[in-house]
């Protein structure tokens, strides 16, 4: 699946992904995956439904869904490069992804965000109704002691 709008390409084609650019953003810029190893990024892309935003053959945005394509999908690693923010690209990416054939009819779509609640609310996301039912194992700063 691919669409083009205002010189930007939105695609689910993994062959277009610039893994080095995604790795750079996640390991150097993001707050959630600082120092993530390149091999971990590669493995996460291989095992997820991934989407990219491209302009002039440059990776300007990325997102991936961890999903079984039947009942559940978890959205993660969403970003738009700083110089392209404010153009509505994250909203267009969400609209492109949410209607993807592999993400239809699922029982649960989930994500975690620090600061993009308003974006995700526009697509039907809300705070958990029963957060006490949710549990997790979270390893804080897992990559901080590791280097590629």
UniProtKB/TrEMBL annotation:
CDD domains documented for this protein: NAT_SF
Recorded superkingdom: Bacteria
Domain N-acetyltransferase: 8-140
Pfam families for the chain: Acetyltransf_1 (PF00583)
InterPro entries referenced in this protein's UniProt entry, alphabetically: Acetyltransferase_Butenolide, Acyl_CoA_acyltransferase, GNAT_dom
Protein name: GNAT family N-acetyltransferase
Lineage: Bacteria, Pseudomonadati, Bacteroidota, Sphingobacteriia, Sphingobacteriales
